[in-house]
């Protein structure tokens, strides 16, 4: 066995670089990292590999230190074409939104100070005036994310009571977010009505008891039921709800404030429509089609929003000042009518096909390996518009003997990492989601990845 050839912990600690690190960081921690590196070396040996030498082990320790100190999450180039990619951090922010959160981060702010009176103010006030202006609602509250908005809403309105949900909408949104679980957590009881494919307005009506707190409508944002289906329009549901004296709560999911059909996609329910249809509360995310930071937004009737704001959970899930600042700046783009130009997700969605083709072609001219510019589709993604894609043009790279998986791995290991997709042993790079300033680094990464 080569185990005996491995250097001792002390001798690795005596290496110049490791010794310097042990001086500047906690020595115990560096000793732990030396042990981890030695454990890894033993594993390599067990699997029949060569015993790493002193120099390699010291390097591995320094690498572990560097990995810990590196700023995370790292900047990644998204060449997948998926505009709202949950694993890649969803919506990139507009310049104004970034500037706003920088401002809020740099110094103190009037986050909860009313400058006119010098008294305590509300962090929600400014956001509320923007949200009401845009959606037509009476009131709003913004929290950590849409999942917490739902939890807050149901806890405040439905604890100890029943909430009527269509069977087709008692769904899992992804990442462990299931409507029945959130409802149970809030202390409410789910009363599911209708069937998986068809629910009628009378199903809701029949389910109402003196203990019913609300009707809950959930947008099926990540799947689609096709064929023999029926669901209830918000307006019809509101009619029954009003007659029964209960509110309709509507989770619209992606929070698209622009009409998606204008961009050749299916219509995604908008918060303003839902408000107009009479929903009591409308829930949506800040970092999906709204194009802002992670946030959960609730707009709706003032008496209901007030109950949410007074609930103890409101404090536990409140929005932080950086997100608040960038969310406000993002909403201002809608008020100015400049969302398509200024908000990255809308700029990406609205990029003309011709521009995408031009860009893919210019990438191709900077490459020496065999490749083609081909028609493809980009997905909107991120729990919105299931199966909806936009026509796109991609650079399709023939990876030859290196193989597509290996090229993808090399792209991910690049600095900055590049994430692309594979189709039939070719690597596809979609310009739609690559920011203009990323062209240079993307090409450098690609050239290095395809090198034999
Ligand atoms: C994405 C989504 C959620 C969860 O929103 P987060 O902001 O990720 O917490 C809830 N409901 C629907 C319908 C969604 O699409």
- Which parts are unreliable, with pLDDT below 50 for 5 consecutive residues or more? none
Overall pLDDT, averaged? 94
Determine Rg (CA atoms, Å): 27 Å
> Level of helix content?
40-55%
Outline:
globular
Assigned CATH class of the largest domain: Alpha Beta
Instruction: Note the main sheet.
Output: 7 strands, mixed
Question: Terminal Cα separation, in Å?
Answer: 35 Å
CATH superfamily of the largest domain, called what? Type I PLP-dependent aspartate aminotransferase-like (Major domain)
Placed side by side, the strands forming the largest sheet appear as: 2-10-9-8-7-3-6
Question: Number of helical segments?
Answer: 19
Number of strands: 15
Give me the CATH fold name of the largest domain: Aspartate Aminotransferase, domain 2
What is the architecture of the largest domain at the second tier of CATH? 3-Layer(aba) Sandwich
Characteristic key phrases:
3 domains, 452 residues, alpha/beta, binds pyridoxal-5'-phosphate, 19 helices, Aspartate Aminotransferase, domain 1, Aspartate Aminotransferase, domain 2, 4-stranded antiparallel sheet, 42% helix, 7-stranded mixed sheet
Give a quick rundown of the structure:
By secondary structure, this protein is α/β, with parallel strands linked by helices. The chain contains 19 helices and 15 strands. Strand 14 (421-423) and strand 15 (426-429) form a beta hairpin.
């Amino acid at each position: 066995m080569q185990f005996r050839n491995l250097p001792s912990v002390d001798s690795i600690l005596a290496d110049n670089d490791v010794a310097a690190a042990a001086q500047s960081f906690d020595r115990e921690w560096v000793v732990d990292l030396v042990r981890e590196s030695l454990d890894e070396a033993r594993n390599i040996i067990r699997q029949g590999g060569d015993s790493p030498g002193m120099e390699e082990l010291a390097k591995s320790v320094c690498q572990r230190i560097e990995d810990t100190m590196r700023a995370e999450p790292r900047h990644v180039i998204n060449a997948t074409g998926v505009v709202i990619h949950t694993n890649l951090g969803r919506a990139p922010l507009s310049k104004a939104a970034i500037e706003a959160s920088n401002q809020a981060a740099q110094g103190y702010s009037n986050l909860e100070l009313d400058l006119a009176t010098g008294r305590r103010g509300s962090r929600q006030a400014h956001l509320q005036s923007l949200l009401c202006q845009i959606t037509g609602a009476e009131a709003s509250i913004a929290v950590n994310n849409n999942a917490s908005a739902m939890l807050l809403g149901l806890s405040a309105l439905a604890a100890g009571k029943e909430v009527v949900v269509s069977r087709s909408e008692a769904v899992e949104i992804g990442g462990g977010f299931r409507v029945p679980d959130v409802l149970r957590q809030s202390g409410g009881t789910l009363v599911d009505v209708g069937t998986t494919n068809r629910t009628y307005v009378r199903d809701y009506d029949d389910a109402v008891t003196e203990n019913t707190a609300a009707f809950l409508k959930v947008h099926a944002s990540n799947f689609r039921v096709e064929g023999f289906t029926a669901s209830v329009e918000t307006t019809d549901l509101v009619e029954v709800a009003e007659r029964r004296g209960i509110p309709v709560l509507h989770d619209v999911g992606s929070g698209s404030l622009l009409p998606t059909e204008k961009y050749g996609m299916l219509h995604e329910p908008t918060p303003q429509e839902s408000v107009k249809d009479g929903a009591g509360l409308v829930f949506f995310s800040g970092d999906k089609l709204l194009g802002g930071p992670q946030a959960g937004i609730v707009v709706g009737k003032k008496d209901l929003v007030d109950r949410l704001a007074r609930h103890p959970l409101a404090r536990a899930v409140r929005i932080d000042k950086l997100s608040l600042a960038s969310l406000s700046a993002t909403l201002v783009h809608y008020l100015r009518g400049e969302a398509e130009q200024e908000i990255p997700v809308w700029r990406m969605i609205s990029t003309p096909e011709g521009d995408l083709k031009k860009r893919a072609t210019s990438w191709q001219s900077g490459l020496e390996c065999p490749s083609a510019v081909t028609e493809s589709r980009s997905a909107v993604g991120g729990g919105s518009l299931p199966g909806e894609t936009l026509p796109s043009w991609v650079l399709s790279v023939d990876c030859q003997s290196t193989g597509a998986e290996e090229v993808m791995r090399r792209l991910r290991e690049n600095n900055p990492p590049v994430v692309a997709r594979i189709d039939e042993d070719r690597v596809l790079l979609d310009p739609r989601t690559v920011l203009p300033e990323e062209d240079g680094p993307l090409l450098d990464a690609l050239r290095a990845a395809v090198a034999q």
